[in-house]
Design brief:
Rossmann fold; ten-stranded mixed beta sheet; three-stranded antiparallel beta sheet; 10 helices; globular
Length: about 290
């Protein structure tokens, strides 16, 4: 990464894409990191899932920046955002980080895409701060909390190596465990001494898992009055056809469910189809073909 004008620019190992600026917004004791792809249109805020980070949106963000001012936030406890031990990790707190990012870019409101945990945050943002949201896409999220999630993340914290001697060693470990290194590899980060460590805090993951397990989104969905579009990965573990339709019925202004023949990470696995479905809804205008 290079330092340009006092702000760091990200370089993806996935290719020479349009490069975003690395910036920060302050929210009390939490310094919130976000990537800013620029663009002259309305603000589009991208929210990643558990163990993710802002850079995971690089597969679609440059194309979206043709129509929007695209910003992607590192959820607290992830990426380069703060991880203070005394910080809250409930839905309202995470949504307030998104508000801080919108304030930092001078946006009164934004269109929002939330993937997995990011969708959980987006629902909180739309319900608790309705004047800051215009419309939202929820990518492969469920409304029910997972009661087993805290124990799962506690076990992962115990069994996951803290560091690797090289990026390849980390990718091999991910691949051996069944993870897709093309996605999960972005959560590995090189340290000054040469070791590669995780770009998230395990204690933060456990605390977020406890919150998502304890609080479902069914109570907030009826209060999300802005237009909603659901993206569903048909090979994902999150939904069946019946459950995703039931979820659609929970939102007062749901514009439907878009199925993709993918697993959980739709924007990584099928970016062209993703853009083809997302852009008309986000722009509130028809679009024949997305521009990559």
């Amino acid at each position: 990464m290079a330092n340009i004008g006092g702000e760091r620019r990200e370089h993806w190992f996935g290719g020479d894409l349009l490069e975003p600026l690395s910036k920060y917004a302050d929210n009390g004791s939490v310094r919130v990191h976000y990537l800013d792809w620029g663009g002259n249109g309305p603000v589009l805020l991208l929210l990643h899932g558990m163990r993710g980070r802002a850079r995971l949106w690089a597969s679609v963000a440059p194309a979206l920046a043709r129509y929007f001012h695209v910003v992607a936030m590192d959820v607290r406890g992830h990426g380069w955002s703060g991880r203070p031990a005394d910080a809250a990790y409930d839905r309202r707190a995470l949504a307030s980080d998104a508000v801080a990012v919108l304030d930092a870019v001078g946006a009164d409101k934004a269109r929002v895409i939330g993937h997995s945990l990011g969708g959980w945050i987006a629902i909180g943002l739309a319900a608790h701060y309705p004047d800051r949201v215009e419309r939202l896409i929820l990518e492969d999220i469920g409304l029910e909390g997972d009661p087993d999630a805290p124990a799962t993340y506690e076990e992962r914290a115990r069994s996951t190596p803290r560091s690797f001697g090289s990026l390849q060693e980390g990718l091999d470990w991910l691949r051996a465990g069944g993870a897709n290194p093309d996605w999960a590899g972005a959560s590995l980060e090189r340290q000054p001494g040469g070791a590669w460590t995780w770009a998230y805090d395990n204690e933060a993951l456990i605390r977020i898992a406890r919150e998502t397990a304890a609080v479902s989104c069914w109570d907030l969905a009826p209060h999300v009055t802005k237009p909603v579009l659901l993206f569903w990965g048909t090979k994902s573990w999150i939904h069946t056809a019946e459950s995703v339709e039931r979820m659609a019925g929970a939102f007062p202004d749901c514009h439907g469910v878009v199925p993709f023949e993918t697993n959980h990470w739709i924007h990584k696995e099928a970016p062209e189809s993703y853009l083809r479905a997302a852009l008309p809804f986000l722009r509130d205008a028809p679009l024949s073909e997305p521009q990559m």
